[in-house]
Amino acid sequence: MSNPSLLILPGDGIGPEVMAEVRRIIDWYGDKRGLKFDVSEDLVGGCAYDAHGTPLHDDTMAKAQEVDAVLLGAVGGPKYDALDFSLKPERGLLRLRKEMDLYANLRPAQCFDALAEFSSLKTDVVAGLDIMIVRELTSGIYFGEPRGIIEEGNERVGINTQRYTESEIDRVARSAFELAMRRDKKLCSMEKANVMESGVLWREVVTEVSKDYPEVELSHMYADAGAMQLTRWPKQFDVIVTDNLFGDLLSDLAAMLTGSLGMLPSASLGAPMANGRPKALYEPVHGSAPDIAGQGKANPIACILSFAMALRYSFDAGDEADRLEAAVNAVLANGLRTADLLGQEGVEPVSTAEMGDAVLSALDASL
Ligand code: NAD
C-alpha cells in the first residue's frame, strides 16, 4: 500500500519558519515510528503571487484535491496590501476552503497545565480544559443572499441573510457527532432558536441526526447563554457545534481562554473521500506575523499541534497524536517558552528552532 499523502503549503511570513519545525517532526515519525508520508510542498499566498501572479495556482489546487491532507502555514503580508482583492494572499486560502468544500471547522481549546496561569480566567477554571468547537464554515450569514448595501427612501440599508438548508446542517452535525464519538460522547448544539427560524431548523435537524448516534448525549443551548457558560465553567462542555457566525465568535472566545495565538491549531474538514478519509486542511489559527517574521521568534507549537490533528483525524493515528501533544506538554512543563509565552521576568525566550529541538527530544524520550 502506498504511504498517505500530505501537501505542505508553508505560505508567507512566519509560515515557512514554523513549518520547518513540523517537517522535522514528520521526518521523526517516518524514522522512529515507521509512519511515512508522501510529502509534497507548494506555494500559496503572497509567495505564489510572486511566482505565478496568482495566490493559488490551478496545479496546486488540483494537488490539494488529490492528497489525503493539506497542511498550511500562514499567508499574507504588508507587501501585498495594495493588490487587487482577487489577488490578495488570503484569496488563495479561501479558494482552497471553498473548492475543497470544507464545511466543518474544528477549533480545539485545550489548556496545557504549564500555561494555565496565562489565562484571563482563574487557573482552576481552565486547568485541564479540553473542548472542541465545530463551526459550520461554508454557509450561513457570511454567504446568504440577498446581501449588500441598498438605498431605501432617503437612507442606506445594510443587508445580510442567515440561510441554512437541512443538508448543510445535517452534514456538519454528523461531523460533530462523529467527533463526539471519539471523545467524551457529549455534544452541545448552539443557536438562537428563540429568535431565529434558521435556529429552529438547526435544532430540529441536529435532534434528528442524533437518532443515528444514540450513545452521544446531546444538549441544546442558546448561543448567547453558551458564551456566558464558556467563560463561567468551560469544562462542562466537550464538543460544541454551531453555525458560521456564532462559531466565529465562540471559537475565538474559547481559544483565548487558554493563552497565546501561537498555541492554537485548527482543522477544516469536508466530505469523506473514496478512501473514507475526510477532505482536510490543517492550519494554525495565527497569521503570517510580519512583525516577527525572519527573526526566529515565532512559536511553532500551533503548527505542530495542527499536524497532531492531522495524525488524529486524517491518518487514524490518535495514539501518535497523543504522543505529540504529550511532548509539547512536557516541553512547556520544563519551562521552555518562545517570546509570545513569556510572562515571568528573568526567563529567556527560546527560538523557533530551539522549541522544535525540544519537542523532538521529548518525542525521543517518549519511546
Ligand atoms: P497575526 O496572527 O499574523 O499576528 C497577530 C500577533 O500575534 C502579532 O503580534 C504576531 O507577532 C503574534 N503571533 C502570531 N502568531 C504567532 C506565533 N506563531 N508565534 C509568536 N507570535 C505570534 O495577525 P495579523 O497581524 O492581524 O495579520 C498579519 C498577516 O497575516 C495579515 O496579512 C493577515 O491578513 C494575515 N492572516 C493570515 C491568516 C492565515 O493565513 N490563516 C490568519 C490571520 C491573518
Would you write up a description of this structure?
By secondary structure, the chain is α/β, with parallel strands linked by helices. It has 2 domains: 1-111 and 262-367, Isopropylmalate Dehydrogenase; 130-257, Isopropylmalate Dehydrogenase (3-Layer(aba) Sandwich). Helices cover 40% and strands 21% of the residues. The strands form 2 sheets. Strands 2-1-3-12-11-4-5-10-8-9 form a 10-stranded mixed beta sheet, with helices on both faces. A two-stranded antiparallel ribbon has the order 6-7. β6 (144-152) and β7 form a beta hairpin. α1 crosses α10 (301-313), α6 crosses α7 and α11 packs across α12. It starts with a strand and ends with a helix. 47% of the residues are buried. The model has no long low-confidence stretch (mean pLDDT 95). Nicotinamide-adenine-dinucleotide is lined by residues 14, 18, 74-77, 90, 93, 261-262, 283, 286-292, 298-299, 302, 340.
Helix share bin? 40-55%
Strands in their spatial order, largest beta sheet: 2-1-3-12-11-4-5-10-8-9
Into how many domains do the coordinates divide? Answer: 2
Can you list the ligands bound to this structure? nicotinamide-adenine-dinucleotide
Give me the CATH superfamily of the largest domain. Isopropylmalate Dehydrogenase
Order of helices and strands: EHEHHEHEHEEEHEHEHEHEEHHH
Largest sheet: 10 strands, mixed
Strand content: 15-25%
CATH class of the largest domain equals Alpha Beta
Number of strands: 12
- Any idea what the shape is? globular
Whole-angstrom Rg:
21 Å
Distance between the termini: 26 Å
CATH architecture of the largest domain: 3-Layer(aba) Sandwich
CATH topology of the largest domain: Isopropylmalate Dehydrogenase
The number of distinct helices, counting runs of at least 4 residues, comes to 12
